[in-house]
Amino acid sequence: MKYLKLFEYYGKLEYDLQVYKIKNYIIKNDGTINVDGSVDLSNYDLTEIPFNFSRVEGSFHIGYNELTSLKGCPNYVGKTFYCNDNRLTSLMYCPKYVGHGFDCSMNRISIIDNVEYIGNYLCCYDNLIRNISSNIEVVGNVDIYINNSYKNLKINPIEIIFKSLNRRNISDKDILEELSIYRPIKDDGTVIYKSKLKEMYQQLD
Question: What local confidence, expressed as pLDDT, does residue 8 receive?
Answer without folding.
Answer: 59
